[in-house]
Amino acid sequence: MATLNTTNIKHASSSSNNIVLASNGSVTIPNLTATAFSTSTSLGITHARIYRITSTFSLTSGSTTLTNNWEYADDASAGVLGSGWSLPSSGIFSFPATGIYTVKASALISAVAGTNMPYAGLDLAATINNSSYDPLTTSYSSQEYDDLNNTRYHNVHVTSIIDCTDTSNVKFKVMAYRDVNFGNVSFLGDSGANYTYVEVTRLGDT
Questions:
Q1: Is the separation of the CB atoms in 166 and 108 below 8 Å?
Q2: 13: burial class by Cβ within 10 Å (0-12, 13-18, 19+)?
Q3: For the purposes of burial, counting CB atoms within 10 Å of the CB of 162, is it exposed (0-12), middle (13-18) or buried (19 or more)?
Q4: Cα 143 → chain centroid
Q5: Which of 47, 67, 116, 117 is the most buried (most CB within 10 A)?
């Protein structure tokens, strides 16, 4: 590996040194503005947060938006990155800033003893006009005519990448589904653990 030994770096047309390297390893860069520094450090992941439902929800219809009992994951070790977050309003999630986001939703579903469950799961949908929603991804789990003497548990997961160009209009929601011809199923929730939850991470600029 080659080593470059120098103390000064300057542009060919400059009359003074542009970058000075000191023997202690420090670097002096003239005309480095606060704006330039802020721009250089804003790259990468700037926002990340997890939401979860705090109590179990029984799905009695064929489908519905998960609207109630959302909270931020607030365990002692829970992390959050960035500002501008807000809890969903009537199940509608907003983004804290414009950017490209990955949104992941997971659910722990239970079907009590005696309940067939041909399918149950989640759907992730988004809007770009704060009105009409486009289904992005769906995940179902199925277990039918197995051991009906015991409660069965299933995990489903959905993921999508959303381009938020306008925080007032680009939003998303999570919908729960089941086969309406069979018994009710439950989407588990808890205030101390992530059973049914949403993870939102800003990947970069739009």
A1: no
A2: exposed
A3: buried
A4: 28
A5: 117
Quick one: tokens of 75? 């365990």
Amino acid at 169: N
Question: d(Cα 20, Cα 95) in Å, to the nearest integer?
Answer: 42
Give the pLDDT band (50/70/90) at residue 3: confident
pLDDT of 23-42, one tens digit each? 776 777 776 655 554 444 45
Buried b (16+ CB within 10 A) or exposed e, 175-201: bbbbbeeeeebbbbbeeeebbbbbbbb
Residues 123, 140: Cα–Cα separation, whole Å: 9
Residue 172 and residue 125 in contact, taking contact as beta carbons nearer than 8 Å: yes
**Tokens matching residue 90:** 């009537």
In angstroms, the CA 109 to CA 132 distance is 28
